[in-house]
Amino acid sequence: MSLLRTENITMKFGGVVAVSNLNVRLEKNEIIGLIGPNGAGKTTAFNMISGVYKPTSGKVLFGDKDITGMKPSAITKLGVARTFQNIRLFKELSVLENVVIANHLRLQSNWISSVVRTPDYSRKEKSMYDKSMALLEKVGLADLKDEKSYSLPYGKQRRLEIARALATDPGILLLDEPAAGMNPQESDDLMHFIARIRDEFDLSILMIEHHMQVVMGICERIYVLDYGITIAEGNPYEIQNNPRVIEAYLGVDE
Ligand SMILES: Nc1ncnc2c1ncn2[C@@H]1O[C@H](COP(=O)(O)OP(=O)(O)OP(=O)(O)O)[C@@H](O)[C@H]1O
């Protein structure tokens, strides 16, 4: 059984069919790419998988569980975390605080214990800080823990965003254009980083990405969307040599 699977998910906005009958599957420890020209429907697909949108039709399955239309927070709790195309950090907070806040999802407590700060709450909070620090060590941001997140270079902000997603203990990571705005060196570093966290955190990853060097470098399988339609699926070699893909996407200057 696939870890995550969509069955003919379709999203219509009025007369616009943003995604039509998309069938994506993600197996354990795979890194899968979702590519296509601007407006092809990639982010809409992510929004349906992560619960931001309820598909007009079709199903999203997490193992054998139907998660179609569940709330984003419930889907995150099941172990599906995502990042966004536009970086969404708490700019004025430190690097460590950004990760601690993401960790709160896993802090089981009621509001009274957090206001009164019961010993149990304080212990959980301390362990959350420790866990966040350990996470920062693993992603190579520990020495920047007290820096305000906005002061980080762009590549490190992206890495922090991924660390925030990892703080929710996901099994599946959805990355929306992680290499956006990066220079070739930063994208190369990111590629190695993604492959490393897949192994270290036992993740399965679905990523939207425009940088072909990144997609072809780390994705085992790739789906190509064009105007909401899946025009190809295959390994990097098959995708690079598919005439429909070349016409729809690779031939277009980004
Ligand atoms: N909330 C919405 N309301 C109406 N139309 C939408 C909405 N969200 C997306 N669309 C439309 O759906 C289509 C797919 O958009 P989407 O953002 O999913 O594409 P994308 O492949 O992620 O593009 P990009 O690479 O530019 O991010 C576009 O025509 C877009 O205008």
Detailed description of the structure:
This is ABC transporter ATP-binding protein. The protein contains ten helices and eleven strands. It has helices at 42-49, 72-78, 95-103, 111-116, 119-138, 154-166, 184-200, 212-218, 236-240, 243-250, and strands spanning 4-13, 16-22, 25-26, 31-35, 57-62, 65-66, 80-82, 172-176, 204-208, 221-226, 229-234. A hairpin with a 2-residue loop joins strand 10 (221-226) and strand 11. 39% of the residues lie in helices and 22% in strands. It has two domains: 1-79 and 170-254, P-loop containing nucleotide triphosphate hydrolases (Rossmann fold); 89-168, no CATH class. With 254 residues, the protein is of the alpha/beta class. The structure holds adenosine-5'-triphosphate. Residues 13, 16, 18, 36, 38-44, 85 line the site of adenosine-5'-triphosphate.
